[in-house]
Design a protein that fits this description.
Order of helices and strands: HHHEHEEHEEHHEE
Distance between the termini: 119 Å
Strand order of the largest sheet: 2-4-5-7-6
Shape: elongated
Structural class: alpha+beta
Mean pLDDT: 81
Number of helices: 7
Low-confidence stretches: 280-284
Largest sheet: 5 strands, mixed
Radius of gyration: 39 Å
Number of strands: 7
Length: about 325
């Protein structure tokens, strides 16, 4: 036999349709909510990137001090912000260095032009004098030629000093290095000083023989000693010029002390600047103001330092250089 049972599915279908309607309404609501919230969330998430973009545009427009706030979260955006700030700081330093370099170059060109203009003006004046008939007078012609010779020598010395500074400050300049005895250089300078000015009193205190050795270019280091001696003769004539060489550890010291009038405190930081000649009476000298600048450049090129100390009476210049030990490398 066959038994057949049946039940109406209307209730189940109605429940299914209700569930579908609810699901559709909820899905639509979620879609609408997501469409409203997603732009806000994305905008908030991208806000740090927008700040980086704005700061980049400001930096490109010339605002070198522009930075972005670094979030405390250690994520990609935080690392990007820190990287941007480091880059901006590096760019700012580079532009600052460039501005200082350009300013120094402009000042250097201006000073060099001023120093060259004076002898050129003198030469032009002497040529005009000769052109007006002074050449017919032997004495006047001789005076003009002597004046022109002095100015030519002055220009030659100035150009040579400028070339020396250029070579010393050129990156990667090839320089000859050998052990140099500072005592020998001082002895040579004292001998030359005594020839130029026999009345000048000089005292010498040297280190133990063969200990004041430095590794460097002998001609350049000799230029340091001679420039210091010339500076002392020019601005501190009379009195005693005391030379001293000492050694301490891996350093050798070269010191020159004079008994001159002293250098004012506000002038001391500038004595090694190019073309600077100090007080009014010094500016009237025939020097170009490059002697001490060359001293500093040579000493620094040899890995050393040069300093100056002055009181109301007396000035001391000291150069510190890496020492070569007699029994081994520096």
């Amino acid at each position: 036999g066959v038994v057949q049972l049946s039940e109406s599915t209307q209730t189940l279908q109605q429940t299914q349709r209700s569930l579908l309607v609810v699901l559709a309404i909820v899905s639509l609501a979620l879609i609408l909510l997501a469409a409203f919230i997603t732009p806000l969330l994305v905008s908030r998430a991208l806000r740090p990137l927008h700040r980086v973009t704005e700061a980049s545009s400001a930096l490109a427009a010339g605002d070198m001090g522009r930075r972005v706030d670094e979030p405390a979260v250690q994520d990609e955006v935080g690392r990007l912000s820190r990287a941007f700030n480091e880059m901006a700081s590096a760019v700012q330093r580079a532009f600052h260095i460039r501005e200082e370099s350009e300013s120094g170059m402009r000042a250097f060109v201006s000073d060099a032009s001023h120093e060259l203009r004076t002898p050129l003006t003198t030469l032009q004046g002497q040529l005009d004098i000769l052109g007006r008939g002074a050449a017919a007078d032997p004495q006047a012609a001789e005076t003009s030629l002597q004046s022109m010779q002095r100015e030519v020598n002055r220009m030659s010395a100035l150009v040579e000093d400028l070339l020396t500074l250029t070579r010393l400050e050129s990156p990667g300049a090839d320089q000859h290095r050998e052990p140099v005895d500072l005592d020998a250089l001082v002895a040579e300078a004292v001998d030359e000083q005594s020839v130029r000015n026999p009345e000048q009193r000089v005292e010498v205190s040297l280190a133990a023989r063969g200990t004041a050795l430095v590794l460097g270019d002998r001609d350049q280091l000799r230029r340091v000693v001679l420039n210091l001696a010339t500076n002392a003769l020019k601005y501190a004539p009379g009195g005693v010029h005391a030379w001293q060489t000492t050694v301490q550890g891996d350093a050798a010291f070269l010191t020159l002390t004079d008994q001159g009038r002293g250098i004012p405190e506000d002038v001391l930081p500038r004595v090694f600047d190019r073309f600077y000649r100090g007080p009014d009476e010094a500016r009237q000298s025939s020097g170009s103001g490059l002697g001490l600048a060359i001293v500093r450049s040579i000493v620094e090129a040899h890995g050393g330092t040069v300093t100056v100390v002055s009181a109301s009476t007396g000035t001391t210049f000291s150069a510190t250089l890496p020492r070569v030990r007699p029994d081994g490398p520096p």
